[in-house]
Design brief:
There is one protein chain. This protein has one domain: 2-Layer Sandwich (Alpha-Beta Plaits), CATH 3.30.70.100. It is globular. 16% of the residues are buried. The chain is of the alpha+beta class. Strand 2 and strand 3 form a beta hairpin. Helix content is 34%, strand content 36%. The chain is built from two helices and six strands. A four-stranded antiparallel sheet has the order 2-3-1-4. Helix 1 packs across helix 2. This is ABM domain-containing protein. It comes from Bradyrhizobium nanningense.
């Protein structure tokens, strides 16, 4: 699995951004090969974090390009700035049913 974390630090309303992005980003992700999950976190003080999980790096990169284009075209008025992006292979995955994976 491959995880991408985007951290935005100048968000006026993380809830508003999440609401507006939900349909657009959600649709892109649902149509993306290798997509597993998407989560948005309001970290307070104008910090918003989006976490995406994919089967592999190639799937993540393809979806990220589409998401970036959507954000620039549809959320430009929110002036989110450039996110800090962290990504990499998931080394430990623990599921609620007790199963886990370790690389």
């Amino acid at each position: 699995m491959y995880m991408v974390i985007r951290k935005y630090t100048k968000v006026r309303s993380v809830a508003d951004v999440a609401r507006r992005a939900k349909s657009g980003v959600g649709e892109i992700l649902r149509q993306s090969q290798g997509f597993r999950s998407y989560h948005v976190l309001d970290a307070g003080d104008g910090v918003g974090i989006a976490v995406m999980i994919f089967d592999d790096r190639e799937s993540a990169n393809a979806a990220n390009a589409k998401i970036l284009a959507f954000v620039q075209a549809s959320l430009h008025d929110l002036d989110l700035g450039v996110p800090e992006i962290t990504s990499g292979e998931v080394l430990v995955d623990i599921e609620p049913d007790g199963s886990s994976g370790i690389k």
